[in-house]
Recover the amino acids of this structure.
């Protein structure tokens, strides 16, 4: 570890990390941490020694000019700290330790141990690792973001899933496992990026990760132009899909599959969770990002920009308790009225037909039934 500057005493610090490479489809995760660092003006205080973890033939250093002087930037992982003076919109400060780098080429266990050593020294309460993967998800729907953890208690208290994944893993999975053995609470947030449009950047997936991070840590994250970038990205992909009939047909099949799979999620529990999020965001003390009746004032009102379980951007309108409002709808009465009119017309026609009689008795009046039934 190369220490660059001293670090002040931190307030309720949480470490948020993302790594370029295999765990970062569409650069969505690394762009999310970069956004936090840029918006909150993070100060780099340490960097890992590139010689220890990177193959420079895989991740090459870059040369650049600084006032005519040639300098080299080595691929590495850097740590910065940001202080949020008003973290939850209620005047409570909090610190984030941001870890941003490239998935190491070698010595992953030493890499994770070095990061956890700093986490312990800084008094980090929890580690959140952001990731993005390619999936069969349509770009026209909200980006699915799953939160997983290896800690059963954390899964229960923070409404997360216990990880059940088996298969190849990247540095995100190794770091989370290292946290489990070290006794550090750790959460991974994964955004699903459409595999047919995987080229970076993907601001829509980045925005979805930041929205989920807000809910997880009870933060107010300034989004800047990210909402507009996400809209522009979706419009661009819409246009590309419209120009290719096969792609358009494929996207439609993904939409149908997604909508069908999410139908059971329109449950009372899912709606209640979204309603709680809505109430938190309309807190009049929340400052920027204040929710209004028409959506969110900072541009998060587009349904495709939110990663919600139910797909709603506003809570359902509660049912009225007024008995007068419980009358049967007009549409429900019309079929019976039509049936009654049809019977009256048929009886009138029978009474006019030869042999017909308005006083003719049916089986219920004691007359014999010749139908044999």
């Amino acid at each position: 570890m190369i220490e660059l500057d001293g670090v002040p005493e931190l307030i309720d610090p949480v470490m948020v990390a993302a790594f370029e490479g295999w765990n970062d489809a569409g650069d969505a995760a690394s762009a999310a941490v970069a956004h936090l660092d840029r918006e909150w003006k993070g100060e780099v205080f340490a960097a890992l020694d590139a010689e220890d973890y990177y193959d420079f033939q895989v991740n090459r250093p870059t040369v650049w000019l600084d006032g005519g002087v040639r300098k080299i930037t080595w691929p590495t992982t850097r740590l910065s700290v940001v202080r949020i003076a008003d973290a939850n919109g209620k005047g409570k400060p909090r610190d984030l330790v941001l870890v941003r780098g490239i998935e190491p080429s070698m010595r992953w266990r030493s890499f994770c141990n070095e990061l956890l050593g700093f986490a312990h020294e800084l008094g980090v309460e929890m580690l959140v690792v952001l990731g993005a993967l390619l999936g069969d998800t349509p770009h026209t729907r909200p980006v699915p973001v799953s939160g997983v953890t290896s800690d059963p208690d954390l899964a229960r208290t923070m409404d997360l899933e216990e990880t059940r994944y088996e298969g190849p893993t990247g540095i995100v999975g190794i770091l989370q496992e290292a946290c489990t053995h070290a006794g550090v609470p750790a959460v991974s947030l994964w955004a699903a990026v459409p595999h047919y449009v995987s080229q970076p950047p993907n601001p829509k997936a980045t925005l979805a990760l930041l929205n989920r991070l807000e809910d997880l840590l009870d933060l107010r994250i300034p989004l800047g132009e990210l909402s507009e970038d996400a809209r522009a990205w979706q419009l661009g992909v819409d246009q590309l899909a419209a120009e290719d009939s096969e792609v358009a047909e494929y996207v439609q099949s993904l939409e149908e599959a997604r909508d069908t799979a999410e139908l059971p999620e329109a449950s009372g529990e899912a709606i209640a969770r979204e309603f709680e999020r809505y109430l938190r965001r309309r807190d009049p003390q929340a400052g920027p990002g204040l929710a209004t009746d028409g959506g969110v004032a900072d541009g998060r009102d587009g349904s495709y920009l939110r990663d919600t379980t139910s797909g709603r951007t506003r809570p359902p309108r509660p049912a009225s308790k007024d008995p007068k409002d419980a009358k049967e709808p007009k549409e429900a009465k019309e079929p019976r009225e039509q049936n009654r009119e049809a019977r009256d017309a048929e009886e009138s026609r029978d009474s006019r037909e030869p042999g017909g009689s308005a006083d003719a008795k049916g089986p219920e009046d004691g007359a014999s039934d010749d139908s044999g039934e």
